[in-house]
């Protein structure tokens, strides 16, 4: 688990813990310049966004008709659902599609955000790496709770190597 976003999307660390997170101002300004955020529409909705619980088919997480494999961005929405997807921009095949596009709109708000790794339809790991929301690592407790509910319904959706976040 990380403690804040680093790399291409951020030069800063986590925000202080809060119950919800909005897009940080510096990233919003960057997205306006890049055309990812438009004042009249806000963020577009990522066409690959998928509800994690609804993607569970049998003992696998399915994505785009196949067993989910790779690193996906995710958010924990305000209803407590994990929504995940790829960074696919429907308006520009070479453009970015950051975390806020999983919610869309003028002011997307989440409880947590990060990256989730899956292999052959099984969840391997999750973290708090989101340069747009920069959640506190403490927000991962909420993600762990949502994943625990899914685990209790079907533990076969999780890799044998999956480790619950240490409290």
Can you describe this structure?
14% of the residues lie in helices and 23% in strands. By secondary structure, the chain is α+β, with helices and mostly antiparallel strands. The protein has one domain. The strands form 3 sheets. It has a 5-stranded antiparallel sheet, covered by helices on one side. A 3-stranded antiparallel sheet has the order 4-5-6, with no helix packed on it. Strand 4 and strand 5 form a beta hairpin. The N terminus is likely disordered.
Q: What pattern of helices and strands is seen along the backbone?
A: HEEEEEEEEEEH
The gross shape turns out to be: globular
Mean pLDDT reading: 90
What's the number of helices? 2
Structural class: alpha+beta
**Number of E-state strands:** 10
Helix content bin: 10-25%
| Beta-strand share of residues | 15-25%
Report the major sheet.
Answer: 5 strands, antiparallel
Number of domain units: 1
Q: What strand line-up does the widest sheet have?
A: 3-8-7-9-10
The termini sit apart by 11 Å
Radius of gyration, Cα only, in angstroms? 15 Å
> In terms of per-residue confidence, which ranges show pLDDT below 50 for 5 or more consecutive residues?
1-11
